[in-house]
Each structure stands twice: as structure tokens, then as C-alpha cells.
Design brief:
This protein is an alpha+beta fold and 281 residues long. It is built from eight helices and 16 strands. 29% of the residues lie in helices and 30% in strands. Strands 7, 8, 9, 10, 11, 12, 13, 14, 15 and 16 form a ten-stranded mixed β-sheet that branches. A six-stranded antiparallel β-sheet has the order 2-1-6-5-3-4. The longest helix is centred in the first third of the chain and has 14 residues, at 46-59.
């Protein structure tokens, strides 16, 4: 399969991208990004992702690097050149290139990188993988609602989870509540057809799959509670799951060594997963 990326105005093979050493994304993590799932050649919830990208750019005062029409055309061309059918599209926008300094001059031209990743033809949709999570202190900054490319806390937390033979880490804030995962939103099932997740504020990223699951749940008369929950509540939950653009809806069967849902996917989680897969087509 070809591996071609769009990098600041040109299409390049992914192993030879031209990125300036003094790009502020490279030196300061001064930028934002999006990851969009692709199924049957269609980008899932594209408009929601672009709305969130627009908000992230606005919050850190970076201009759009292209007009919307040109941006959409670039995304389509990256998909075409890479012959993407199933997978994901990665979009990164940084403030641009300038001499290394914490402050930055006005009028910088933002850098834009877009590339795609293949996945097996819907095999990940057919196989349900139940996972384990650990909890760890939330050491991130106070603007987690911005999808920043500064991901060191998540990198370290994922490594910690892997060392403990888990697949995800849930962040615990100073008040003892779970905010979200290192790369996902966190959910519990309190009772059949009653699900709970942290409300959207500066403590979490407003996940696109999270938003879609809320809408799908409401269509099925599943009550959604947007309220923080504690580690104790999570361990006592009937079920638990996470959501993200690449994991979709993934059941959790172990939290810090405590078995959840008898070690298998629960009925409410399975119902939501099936609804999401149907939505994706």
C-alpha cells in the first residue's frame, strides 16, 4: 500500500516528509490535531471533528492553514492516493516556523500535515476485545478540552498501563474522580440502560465518539448521566467501557485488578457497540 502524506502544500512519501527543525510543533508542541476513523471510504462524523478542530485552533489563536473547500479536497486526495478504505486520517496543525523562542511573532503561516493509516478490512469491527485499565494521577494541564499535540502525560500513562499488562490508563483527579482515559473517554454502567461519564469541561476532551454514543443511547432510551464518578463507583459498576475514534466502544473487564461485569462484555455495552457499528455502516 502507498504511504503518502500531505505536508505544507505538497504530497510526499511518509518516510521523507519535509518538516522544518524550527517548526513550533516540533519544539514546543505548539499545535493541535484530530484523528478521524474511516470505514468503507467514508470519514466518520467528519463535521463533528472539524468543528472540534476549529475550536481547538481558536482557543490557542492559530488560523486555519487553508480554506475549508481546499482542506476537504486535501483530505479526499490523501485518502485516494493511499487507497484507504478502512483506517484513520491524522490531521495536525501547528503554529508554524519561527526562531526558537517561547513567544512567537504575529503572522506565522500554520503548518499542516495530513496522512492516513490502514486497518484490516473491518476485522476490528467483528472481534470484540475486552480490556483491562489501570488508574493513575492526572498530571495534565488544565485545558484538556483542547486537542493539543502535547501528549507526554498520556504517553507515560500508556507505558505504565502496558507495564501492568493493561491496555488503557484512566486519570484520577485530585478530588478522587476519574476524568477520562489517556486516549479515550471513560464510562460506567450503573444499572442496565443507565450509563455515566464525566461532563464536558476543561478536565476532559469532548470526544466525538462520546458525543455519538450519547445520541445513540438517547435513541434507545438508555439514560445518560454526565457526572463525575469515583474509582470506588467504577469498581462497583455493573459494566464499564471506553470510547474513542479508533477503539469505537470497547468493553472493560478489569479496573486496577478488580473484575468488572464477570469478566465479559455486558448487555448495555454490547447494545451500544452494536448501535455504533450499525451507524458506521
Amino acid at each position: 500500500m502507498p504511504k503518502i502524506a500531505f505536508v505544507n502544500g505538497s504530497y510526499q512519501t511518509i518516510n521523507k516528509p519535509s518538516i522544518k527543525i524550527e517548526d513550533r510543533g516540533f519544539q514546543f508542541a505548539d499545535g493541535v490535531y484530530e484523528v478521524i476513523a474511516l470505514t468503507n471510504g467514508v470519514l466518520i462524523d467528519l463535521n463533528f471533528h472539524l468543528d472540534r478542530l476549529n475550536r481547538s485552533l481558536r482557543e490557542i489563536n492559530i488560523e486555519w492553514p487553508t480554506a475549508k473547500e481546499a482542506f476537504n479536497a486535501i483530505c479526499a486526495e490523501v485518502i485516494r492516493r493511499n487507497r484507504l478504505v478502512h483506517g484513520s486520517l491524522y490531521i495536525q496543525i501547528t503554529r508554524g516556523v519561527s526562531a526558537r523562542d517561547f513567544s512567537y511573532p504575529k503572522g506565522l503561516k500554520p503548518s499542516l500535515i495530513i496522512y492516513g493509516r490502514h486497518s484490516q478490512e473491518n476485522q476490528n469491527l467483528k472481534k470484540i476485545e475486552c480490556i483491562k485499565v489501570i488508574t493513575t494521577q492526572d498530571i495534565r494541564w488544565d485545558r484538556c478540552d483542547i486537542k493539543s499535540i502535547s501528549l507526554l502525560a498520556s504517553v507515560l500513562s500508556k507505558a505504565k498501563a502496558k507495564n501492568k499488562l493493561a491496555q488503557e490508563a484512566w486519570f484520577l483527579n485530585k478530588d478522587g474522580f476519574i476524568t477520562e482515559g489517556a486516549s479515550s473517554n471513560a464510562w460506567i454502567v450503573r444499572e442496565p440502560n443507565i450509563i455515566q461519564t464525566h461532563p464536558t469541561n476543561s478536565s476532559i476532551l469532548s470526544g466525538i465518539t462520546r458525543l455519538r454514543i450519547i445520541r445513540l443511547a438517547e435513541e434507545q432510551a438508555i439514560k445518560v448521566i454526565e457526572k463525575p464518578f469515583s474509582l470506588s463507583e467504577a469498581k462497583k459498576a455493573k459494566e464499564a467501557f471506553l470510547t474513542s475514534s479508533t477503539s469505537f466502544v470497547q468493553p472493560i473487564i478489569d479496573i486496577d485488578g478488580t473484575q468488572i461485569s464477570n469478566g465479559k462484555i455486558g448487555l448495555t455495552t454490547k447494545k451500544l457497540l452494536n448501535s455504533y457499528l450499525k451507524f458506521m455502516g
